[in-house]
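Researcher:
Attend to C-alpha cell order:
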Amino acid sequence: MRDEAWVVEVGEKNAAWLATESRTARLAREYRPVDLGDGRVRYSARALGAARELGEEEDGFLTDDADGLRVWIGDDAFELDRE
C-alpha cells in the first residue's frame, strides 16, 4: 500500500495551492501532495492519510463515500483516481 498513489485534476491554480499553501503542504515531504503540472496533483498513501485529517471547513479535505474519493476546494469536488 505504501507505493500506491492517487492522482486528481484540479486545475493549475488549485494544484499549485494544494502543493505549496495548503496545511498539508507544510508537512514533511512524504505527507505532502505533489503538483505534477498541467493542473494535476498526486497523493501518496501517506499524503492521503494526512489530508484525511483536515476538517471539512478546510480546503483540501477529502471525502470517501458512494460518490468516490474526492478532494474539496471551496464548493468544488474533484475525484481522485488510483494511479
In short: The first helix runs from residue 12 to 20. The chain has a mean pLDDT of 94. The chain has two helices and seven strands. The beta strands are 5-9, 34-37, 40-44, 62-65, 68-73, 76-79, 81-82.
